[in-house]
Every structure is written in structure tokens, then in C-alpha cells.
Design brief:
Chain lengths: ~210, ~325
Amino acid sequence: MGDRSFLVELGEKISPDVNCRVQQLMRQLQDAQLEGVRELAPGYRSLLVVFDPLAIAPDYLRERITEIDAHPLSAGLPPAKQVAVPVFYGGECGPDLEAVAAHLGTSTDEVIRLHTGTIYRVYMIGFTPGYPYLGELPVELAVPRRSTPRTRVPKGSVGIAQRQTGIYPVESPGGWQIIGWTPIELFDPGRPLPSLLEMGDQVKFEAVRPVEI
Amino acid sequence: MAGANVFEVLSPGIMSTVQDLGRFGCARYGVAASGALDGFAMRVGNILVGNDENAAVVETTLMGLRMKALRDTVVAVTGGNLQPRSGREPLPLWRSKRVREGEAISFSGPVSGFRSYVAVAGGFQVAAVMGSRSTNLASGFGGFEGRALRKGDILSVGAVEDPVRFADRVFPPERVPVYASPWRLRIVWGPQDDHFSEEGRQTFVTAAFSVSPDSDRTGIRLNGAAVGRKPGLEESIISEGILSGAIQVPGDGQPIIILGETASGGYRKIATVVSADLHLLGQITPGDEIRFEAVSMETAVQALRELQHKIDDFKRRLSLNEMKQPRISSDGMPGP
């Protein structure tokens, strides 16, 4: 992309295998500590390698990336972290839950059962700091984005759209259907690891019932 | 090292933030680079006042910033000409000037460009977060308390010995960039230029686009002839990393030039602004006109080399001058 980055594409479709290759190439390039490489930005199926073209010759870097990609890590990747995310579904916490259930022609309980019944992979962190793109949502839960995006989605909102689900780490605009809310802190720039979740992690949602007072 | 108070914000103007060259290595956490949008002006400002090029500066947009000096100091204002003044006197751009305690520097509005940079000898002192002093507005961290400046904020400065020795340095006027509409921005095609129709690509490099008032630090939104994609392709693509200067085209065919506050995106990118022209993006003003010109990778890198040469050459001249001149300390006596 431009004169200072390469977009290395590792597959056409969204799949855990392709995403693992992205993760692996990122790790290998990180370990290679190439002079002039400024940023590695992983996506679902690609790795954006940003560099200073005055510090490293683009052609040389291209060759190195090709060479490194041809020799995947023999040791593989470290085991994925598993994170349980408690969610309050529906009501004020999930204003779109009813509409989602209605759209799918099912009950809100069934939507919750389906959403909590899958272990999701973190495909990438993006949109806003710490925002996890999680997949894949069961096909029975696939709903379109809201036709009008919200200008303010509260921090902690759990959303779904098509075959994806995600959690808003800060208040931001957003177009996904909001079905729940979690109190967990996804992003804190003061922590040694600022993002709670990283690419490759596994997430399991757990339904919590609000305590009646 | 606790900094000394240097400026009190009397009015923040349209928007003023603390920025350095940006936050790198955090894209994997969804953290964008942020940073000064006109990196060239920002680096020259820092060099003028004797700082490291990456020292934190104040970036101010359009008009209205007023700051009162709380001590004698040396500043350089670079970038767009927003008519800076020190007290009642015009403050010349692209040179370092002494500002005395009690004087207010102010910006009354643009003659050229959109953003000005205030560099201060010693650098604005804010904590580095994730390796950078830039403000991340989306998540509210970095810079000054993670937000744009407000009335009453007190900015502090890093310790520097005898800052007055950095006063009255001048960046060669013939090397000051020209900020004027219509802009001609050089681009390198891709990464998804092949997703656009031949007509769409032609439109992109021949049409004039006007800059929408919706533009902000996340992107410059353009209005003009629609840049069409190939038939049968959906509006969005699978999300991927993005960098400033990338030009994405959503479904309506109206391009958006991505700036520093975005780490990933799901629209097709027809082209990317060359590194040598990135600094100009910080000076593009709503209502301006833009045309794109495609260049080769080699031309793009050569242009960047020339831009870098302007910086290197200026630094070399400054150090030569310093060797020639006996150092005069602030009390007027020759230094050691």
C-alpha cells in the first residue's frame, strides 16, 4: 500500500487457518527485527507491514517477507488464551435483543443460547483500541447491521452483525445490533498489555442475570 | 523529571492537541498512530527550538488558540499561516522566537493552510503512553490528559539549559512548503486498484474533488465524480490494517483520505498518497480542491528522499553556524 507498506495477503476468505498464518508471519517478522520496519498491522487474512523506505529498500524487504513466509515456524504458535466474558443480555443492556429475535423468528432465550453456545476466535483487534472482531457467529444468528448506525454505542456493549460478534471497548459510533453489555475492561493503555484480548485468543460469552434488589 | 509550567491555555480555539510523530507498534491492539498531521512542519518546528524531532508540540486547527507564557521561553510556529501573534506583534512563521513571561500567543485565522504547530524549547512535557506523547482522541489517552486542550489547562515544558540560544533561527524561506488549493497529491496505485473499473480509475486521476466540511483528524472526505468499482463487487471488504494516506472508496464512490486516527478499515482502497506528500494532508482545508497524480514507487521514494534532504540539510547548516559563532549565553556574556 503506497510507498511505505506492503499488504501481505495470506488467503481469500475468513478462516482460522488463514488467520493463524497471519499471526505466525507477524511473530516471525517481529522476531526478525528488520531495520526500518515501523508497524505490523494484522487483519483477518492479511498483514500490513509498514516501513520507512529510506531506512530499508522496499525490494529487499519484499524478498525478506517472501523468504520468511516460505519458512513457517516449526514450533507453531503458543496456546491461545481463553477468556470468559460475562454478559447481561437484553433490556437496557441489549436494546436490540428483541428485534434480533423477532428478525430471526425465534425467542430471546434462543438468541442468548446460540450466542453463548460457541467459542469464538479473536480474528483481529481493530475499529477502536481493544475492539475484538470475533467469529464465527452461528449461521442461525446472522443478522444485518442496523440500517441506521447509532452515533453513540455505550462502552461494554456486545454486538452482532452477519457472522461476527464484538464488544465495544469505549463509547463510539457503531452499526452492529446490540444484544448485551459486559462490565469487563477490554482496553487500558496503562496496563503492560493494553488490550485484554489479542488475535488468536478464544472468547466464551456467559449469560448473567441481573441481581434483583 | 518534573516539567516547569510554560503556557496557560486562555482559549483552545477550534481544536488543539498535543502530538508527537505518532504511536507505532500498537496496531495489533487496534491503536492508530495519531501524531502531528503535518509531520514536516512539526519536525522543522522542533529543530528550530533545539528539540529532538519527535518532541511533543501543540497542533492547532484553523483559529482561536490563545496561550499565555508563564515563563520566558523560545517557541517556533510552523505549518499553516493562521496569523500567529505574540502580544500585539505578528509572530513570524518558520523561525524560533523568544516569548516573554506574560505575553500571549494567539492565532486569529488562516491565510494559508489549516493547522499550525507550536514547538517550545525543551518540548511539551506529557507522559508517554504506549511509547508516544500523541493524543488518541478515540480512546482518550496520551497527549494532555487524553483529550483536546481546554481553557485553563497548564502546559509544562522539559528542562533545557539556556533556551534563548535557540532564538532567531530561520528555516530557509525557499524551502517552506506552499499550502494552496488546488492541491496536486501524488499517489501510488493500490492495494485494491484492480477492484475499480477502468472508468473509475480514470475518473480518480482526472477529476477535481472538493474537500467536504465533514473532514476531521480521522479522514479527509471528498466530493466529486463517483469513482466506480467493477460490477458485482460488494461495497465492503474483509477488514484489514490501514495507514494514513490510504484512499478508501465507500459504496457512494466518494473517496476518503485516511488520516492518523484509524488502524483498520473495511472499504476498498484505490490508491495511497506518497510519503513525501503526507504532510500536506494536514493543511488541506474544507472547500479546497484536490487532484490526484499517479506516480511510480521509485518516483515516490525519490520524492521522499528530497523532502528528507531539506530536513538534513537544515540541520547541517544549523550545526555549522553554531560552530562558527561563539556561544552567547542569555546574560550576554560569552559562554564557556
